[in-house]
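Progress narrative, Year 2. Work on DUF2938 domain-containing protein from Pseudomonas urmiensis advanced from sequence curation to structure prediction during this period.
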Amino acid sequence: MTATTFITYIALIGIGATLVMDLWTLLLKRLGVATLNYAMVGRWAGHLLQGRVYHPAIAKAAPVRHELAWGWALHYATGLLFAALLVGLAGEGWLRTPSLLPALGFGLASVLVPLCVVQPAFGAGLFANNTPTPLRNCLRSLATHGVFGLGLYLSALGLSVS
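Result:
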């Protein structure tokens, strides 16, 4: 497989998995479940570029120009990065014959990024400890990242790399 083909497959898998995750999030929203506002991700990124990592409450931080667009871009960039990490760990052979377990396991493990980095930086605390319902928030994040892992698998399977 050429380097260009390899990178293209990783990009398509990352985009596909992130789309699956977004469909899941859309379903949750329609069911009345609160989900992440990607404008807050963009706001955090904007402040991060100015050297501020932690916020007591990201929603109360000063807005950043185009924060929603930046938030969505960062969301998809993260999906691409996670797809590349999965393929890097599982190897090119996984692209040829994708299996569910590595993708699902990686998706579930990827929940550590929001629970241990993003949520604390937003002021929600480690494992959402500063929120009114930490366990429920952690379980929701775990389910969403499990869906992302399923999306990694389905996207790779749909590409039918041979």
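The first helix runs from residue 3 to 30. The mean pLDDT is 95.
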